[in-house]
Design a protein that fits this description.
alpha+beta, four-stranded antiparallel β-sheet, three-stranded antiparallel β-sheet, 20% strand, elongated
């Protein structure tokens, strides 16, 4: 048995609509109003690009069948965000906790050796990981909006298989 966590379509649709509204408002700020100062026009242009990229990522997730998280015998695979944590072996996890930034909740995962995280190879990704640690306390953050169960349920599953090696035998290896 593999435990598969997917992104619920209704949450992704809601996020896409929000990003589209933000793109429209930002575009109006950048191009639609002649009385807006140059600084606000620049901010509107930046926000249009930012929310457009976010909306594009959400749209791609909405139409793909990509799995957010997989729990298997060897660890977990995080693919839940735009900058996912990738494969995390059970023996590398050092702590798991729920954290909150503004009104968004995340399941944070810390690892013994952050350099072993697959995506940590680029300087930009290491900078993002350091930024995540500074804000949330964890290098890997799973947003509540991209999983089909509560953060508490997912945390309980991860903690169970992380702390009880015998329980992992229930799970199949991902790559058979």
């Amino acid at each position: 048995m593999l435990i598969v966590v997917r992104a619920p379509r209704y949450k992704l649709f809601f996020l896409f609509v929000l990003s589209a509204v933000m793109v429209a408002a930002s575009a109006w700020l950048a191009f639609g109003s002649p009385w807006v100062m140059l600084l606000l026009k620049g901010l509107g242009l930046f926000a249009t690009c930012f929310f457009g990229v976010c909306g594009g990522w959400v749209l791609s997730r909405l139409f793909s069948h990509r799995i957010s998280i997989i729990l298997d015998r060897n660890g977990l695979v995080d693919n839940s965000s735009a900058l996912p944590g990738g494969r995390i072996p059970w023996d590398q996890i050092s702590r798991v906790g729920i954290t909150k930034v503004s009104d968004q909740r995340f399941l944070g995962i810390d690892v013994e050796d952050r350099t072993l995280l697959a995506p940590s190879s680029s300087a930009f990704r290491r900078w993002i990981d350091d930024y995540n640690v500074a804000i949330t306390g964890y290098p890997v953050n799973i947003p509540s909006t991209t999983i089909d169960r509560t953060l508490e349920e997912l945390q309980a599953l991860i903690v169970r298989y992380w702390q009880e090696p015998k329980a992992r035998k229930e799970l199949e290896p991902l790559d058979r």
